[in-house]
Design goal:
- It is a single chain.
- By secondary structure, the chain is α/β, with parallel strands linked by helices.
- It has 2 domains: about 220 residues, UDP-n-acetylglucosamine1-carboxyvinyl-transferase, Chain (Alpha-beta prism); about 200 residues, Alpha-beta prism (UDP-n-acetylglucosamine1-carboxyvinyl-transferase, Chain).
- It has 12 helices and 23 strands.
- A 4-stranded mixed sheet has the order 2-15-17-16.
- Strand 10, helix 5 and strand 11 form a beta-alpha-beta unit.
- Helix 1 packs parallel to helix 6 and helix 2 packs parallel to helix 3.
- The two termini are about 25 Å apart.
- The structure holds shikimate-3-phosphate.
- Belongs to the EPSP synthase family.
């Protein structure tokens, strides 16, 4: 969608202490999956706390196009009347997944083992991203693909009538690829197995179990092996979506680096496959308290109390990358304000996100007076000990997380920091700007 919107330039200025309560929207990963599994169940799934960002709205529209009935009852409150596993109808139009890699990859998986044809498209950013990582394993089930050169969108998928189950060892640590294979495995007879060397976010596994599928996870010498029994009848569920730790990362980071701040962030997911950023912040010396730890919607959640802190640079190990893959842009902003260097390794996947995030962060940070070293899969940010010059405008390349990261940097830089386009923020965190202003941010 952002490809059609007018660019919205925005500037962030040095701000006084941030205070108050930050109500974070629903988790993006869980929201996509709730809509897709609801559509693959027989009967009515009720969702509360759904993220109403453009990425998720595009998935809701897609589920409607495949024959499910998707309805919004109120703020974050939705119902999905599903068509059952194997029940997708052939969509009449093209499926536009906008900016969302998760949306397009999961939906391709969900339809690949049903004998229908669908064409997928997306915005300029999504059309540059690699899709071979999902079409390769989905072809093993028997699905066929016609893609643009390099396996890029638009792609037409011809689903297979008599799929065979698959055993697939993930060549890249990607929850999207894992999930695409598992969703395809739903309509294949027998057992579909996915093996991952590094654990990635496990929302699909948790939610499949919640919807009544037989799915097991075992730690083996080869890695984490997930086995799904095909052709279950999925039972509709009430899904309470936890708040997104990846979105919470932005106000949390801002409160840590803007002197005198103290904010409360209620109900954030503490799923251990998503908490690498928070573990890293604690190592840097962050004052974060986790209160009222509980379970909501099958996920552990807690309230966060965050106070401005003097932070020191750290080494972030490569093994931690899958549990904080979306948080490196904002971590590099926090690192710029810390004392000493922060080294981040295992970042290869950042090259194929909404934009090349190593490049986008390095260019933007350098323009604002921060020293950054980069390599194919690593980045070293030299902390300034709290004095970032600022003064430059940064290109966000249709990437919501680059946009939010540089707006946070502007809250502490000596001179204002600009971004060329704030519109992409609506893909994941539509309320970001008003929420930050309520806390006291000068945006
Ligand atoms: C996601 C997985 C990650 C992440 C993305 C959401 C998901 O992508 O970056 O924002 O919901 O499965 P990869 O699977 O490509 O690492």
């Amino acid at each position: 969608m952002s490809s059609h919107a007018e660019p919205q330039p925005m500037t962030a200025r040095k701000s006084g202490p941030l205070t108050g309560v930050a109500e974070i929207p629903g988790d993006k990963s869980v929201s996509h999956r709730a809509l897709i599994l609801g559509a693959l169940s027989v009967g009515r799934t009720r969702i509360t706390g759904l993220l109403e960002g453009q990425d998720v709205l595009d998935t809701a529209k897609a589920m409607q196009a495949f024959g499910a009935s998707v309805n919004r009852l109120g703020d974050g409150e939705w119902t999905v009347d599903g068509v059952g596993v194997g029940g997708f109808a052939e969509p009449e139009g093209v499926i536009d997944c906008g900016n969302s890699g998760t949306g397009v990859r999961l939906i391709m998986g969900a339809m690949a083992t049903t004998p229908i044809r669908a064409t997928f498209t997306g915005d300029a950013s999504l059309s540059r991203r690699p899709m071979g990582r999902v079409t390769d394993p989905l072809a093993l089930f028997g699905a066929e693909f016609a893609a643009r050169e390099g396996g890029r969108l638009p792609i037409t998928v011809t689903g297979v009538a008599e799929p065979v189950p698959v055993r697939y060892v993930l060549p890249v640590p990607s929850a999207q690829v894992k999930s695409a294979v598992l969703l395809a495995g739903l309509n294949a007879p027998g057992q579909t197995v996915v093996v991952e060397h590094e654990p990635t976010r496990d929302h699909t596994e948790r939610m499949l179990a919640g919807f009544g599928a037989t799915i097991t996870t075992a730690e083996t010498p080869e890695g984490r092996e997930i086995t799904l029994t095909g052709r279950p009848e999925l039972r509709p569920q009430d899904v309470a979506v936890p708040r997104d730790p990846s979105s919470a990362a932005f106000p949390v980071a801002a409160a840590l680096i803007v002197p005198g701040s103290e904010i409360r962030v209620p109900g954030v997911s503490r799923n251990p496959t998503r908490d690498g950023f928070y573990r890293t912040l604690l190592e840097m010396g962050a004052d974060i308290r986790f209160e009222n730890e509980r379970e909501e919607g099958g996920e552990p959640v807690a309230d966060l109390i965050v106070r401005a802190s003097a932070l020191k640079g750290v080494d972030v190990p490569a093994e931690r990358a899958p549990s904080m893959i979306d948080e490196y842009p904002i971590l590099s902003v926090v690192a710029a304000m810390a004392t000493g260097p922060t080294t981040m390794r295992g970042l290869k996947e950042l090259r194929v996100k909404e934009t090349d995030r190593i490049e986008a962060m390095a260019v933007g940070l350098r323009a604002n007076g921060v020293e950054v070293e980069t390599g194919d899969a690593h980045m070293i940010v030299q902390g300034t000990g709290g004095k970032v010059a600022g003064g430059a405008t940064v290109a966000t390349h249709l990437d919501h997380r680059i946009a939010m990261s540089f707006l946070v940097l502007g809250l502490v830089a000596e001179s204002p920091v600009g971004i060329d386009d704030a519109a992409p923020i609506a893909t994941s965190f539509p309320d970001f700007v008003p929420l930050m202003r309520r806390l006291g941010a000068a945006l």
